[in-house]
Design goal:
Order of helices and strands: HEHHEHEHHHEHEHEHHEEEHEH
Number of domains: 1
CATH superfamily: Divalent-metal-dependent TIM barrel enzymes
Distance between the termini: 37 Å
Number of helices: 13
CATH class: Alpha Beta
Largest sheet: 8 strands, parallel, barrel
CATH architecture: Alpha-Beta Barrel
Strand order of the largest sheet: 1-2-3-4-5-6-7-10
Strand content: 5-15%
Length: 298
């Protein structure tokens, strides 16, 4: 390659990088944030989410509804949904009752593990694929690893085998499986850090990652280092904030340093960024504040 050609290629790469840096990230909303409002008036709430400026949303399955009807309402309000969290069988009802505090955490955990038993993995994943197809979604997210599933290395090995199988099933049908973390996966169990074990023992072809930045930081991890070491495996992220005391708060009002985190996420290949706030007192206000704040820094 002569010097002129080299300089032309270098200039093109630099221009592409700068253009990418100037392109705002596609901010979305994990609809769990506004779930109580959805249960009150699904259609109107989607309209209010769109009015804020969001164009992408992540769903909890199809919120116990006909996915074709949910898709029609998303289309009506100019929203697209690249991703869903898995709620096979009657799991959405469990999730909804937990959110309304009609079930204790332990009761919900037991029912959740029962509904998502690894022994019935294939029909469970196929059900989620059919729902994702109807909703026009590319990503299917395995959203939680319960404490009982990571007490020993053998537990984690079993879970990783399940993730690999689920990911391969998804890939055959044109979808991509993501694993979503909480904080506990970054704490050592039986001599291993579960999150690191999952990274090392799942096939990158089949299992990608949706990182919840706040839970990772709360668990003592540095997401930027994970992005650098495992670029290409991260496809989605949750943008959540918290106080120094460990309470979840409105994005932009807590301790999270979103600008460098988002820059590192983009460099690692993250495609979708979902605001999420658990238990917001005023979900729409929190969603609007988060959107405005993140738009001001990205």
């Amino acid at each position: 390659m002569d010097r002129r050609t080299f300089l032309e290629i270098a200039a093109l790469l630099l221009a592409t990088t700068r253009a990418k840096a100037r392109t705002p990230v596609p901010l979305g909303l994990q609809l769990y944030t506004v779930m109580p409002l959805l249960e009150h008036d699904f259609d109107a709430t989607l309209g209010l989410v769109a009015e804020i400026g969001y164009r992408e949303v992540e769903t909890i399955g199809a919120f116990g509804r006909d996915p074709a009807q949910v898709r029609d309402l998303l289309d009506k309000h100019g929203l697209r949904s690249p991703s869903q969290h898995m709620v096979p069988g009657t799991l959405y009802d469990v999730f909804n009752k937990l959110t309304r505090k009609e079930l204790t955490f332990d009761e919900a955990s037991r029912l959740w593990r029962q509904e998502m038993a690894l022994e019935r993995l294939e029909p469970m994943v196929q059900e989620c694929i059919l729902r994702a197809r109807a909703l026009g979604q590319k990503y299917i997210v395995w959203q939680i690893l319960w404490p009982q599933q990571m007490q020993t290395r053998a537990d984690l090995e079993k879970f990783c085998r399940a993730l690999n199988k689920a990911g391969e099933i998804c890939a055959r049908e044109g979808h991509i499986l993501n694993f979503h973390n909480h904080a506990a996966e970054f704490e050592a169990h039986d001599g291993v850090v579960p999150y690191d074990f999952i990274l090392a023992n799942t096939d990158p072809r089949w299992v990608k990652l949706e990182i919840d930045l706040y839970w990772a930081v709360k668990g003592g991890a540095d997401p930027i280092q994970y992005f650098r070491r495992h670029a290409g495996r991260y496809r989605q992220c949750h943008l959540k904030d918290g106080t120094a005391g460990g309470e979840i708060t409105v994005v932009g009002e807590g301790i999270m340093k979103f600008k460098p985190l988002i820059e590192a996420a983009r460099a690692a290949g993250v495609e979708h960024y979902y605001v999420e706030q658990d238990g917001a007192a005023d979900p729409l206000r929190a969603s609007r504040q988060a959107y405005d704040y993140l738009r001001s820094i990205t």
